[in-house]
Write a structure and sequence with these properties.
Shape: globular
CATH topology: Rossmann fold
Radius of gyration: 17 Å
Low-confidence stretches: none
Strand content: 15-25%
Mean pLDDT: 95
Number of domains: 1
Order of helices and strands: EHEHEHEHEHHEHHHE
CATH architecture: 3-Layer(aba) Sandwich
Number of strands: 7
Strand order of the largest sheet: 3-2-1-4-5-6-7
Helix content: 40-55%
Structural class: alpha/beta
């Protein structure tokens, strides 16, 4: 029987690389995506062409009905849920706090903070041994910004990642005896398309001189940390974070 992994934001960047690597480690992968259907289908095709099992499901993680449908579809088509990677997140253009609109705050918190809560809830309901599940793993993709605050750029985004980290710590203790481990990764400056969403596609190049290792990171490097946390090699690890930030 397949062990099914649900990945949100799985059509590009860190999510896509995690999906492909997890499939190589034996997971059937449900690639959740918001709008980039062609990219999500491409990830699924690559996994299937390599002999793996995968499907793509459109989901807006800020909508409860979408999240429930995501998990129901994944379980029905791929098998019991064994893992979740909360990766979906958004940013907006650089802004100081005094210039951030109420609408922007509502949208970013709905996707980046409420979304992972909803997804984690549905995963726990299916994986918890106290509810008849077989246990499982949740990995939350945070950001170094949760610790640094991203002043003058994305304080709102950083705050949502702070909320995600609190979820990680609290939930890990809540479900530890239900057979579920909950951990996170903190990517630093990684070469992904997300920076273009903030109006600066070359942001990593601008900031790489501030990184002790002198370079930006690649999505594959973050994926390796995520898949390790998903694996039995991390069987005694819960409530923890791996920094993937080049030492910054």
């Amino acid at each position: 029987m397949n062990k099914t992994l649900v990945i949100t934001g799985g059509s590009r960047g860190i999510g896509a690389e995690t999906a492909k690597l997890a499939a190589r480690h034996g997971y059937a992968v449900c690639v959740g995506y918001r709008s980039e259907a062609a990219a999500a289908d491409g990830v699924v095709a690559e996994i299937r062409n390599a002999g793996g099992s995968a499907m793509a499901v459109q989901v807006d993680v800020s909508k409860e009905e979408d999240v429930i449908r995501l998990f129901e579809t994944a379980a029905q088509n791929l098998g019991p849920i064994a893992g979740l990677v909360n990766n979906a997140a958004i940013i907006a253009h650089h802004s100081r706090v005094e210039d951030i609109s109420h609408a922007r705050l509502q949208h970013i918190f709905a996707v980046n903070a409420i979304g992972p809560f909803l997804c984690s809830r549905e995963a726990v309901r299916r994986m918890s041994t106290s509810r008849g599940g077989a246990g499982g793993v949740i990995v939350n993709v945070s950001s170094s910004s949760a610790q640094m605050g991203s002043p003058n750029e994305y304080v709102d985004y950083a705050a949502t990642k702070g909320a995600l980290e609190t979820l990680t710590f609290g939930l890990s203790k809540e479900v530890a005896r239900d057979g579920i481990r909950v951990n996170g990764v903190r990517p630093g400056h990684i070469y992904t398309d997300m920076h273009a969403s903030g109006g600066e596609p070359g942001r990593v190049e601008r900031l790489k001189g501030t990184i002790p290792m002198g370079r930006g990171g690649q999505p594959q490097e973050v994926a390796e940390a995520i898949v390790w946390l998903l694996s039995d090699k991390a069987s005694f690890v819960t409530g923890g974070f791996i920094n993937v930030n080049g030492g910054k």
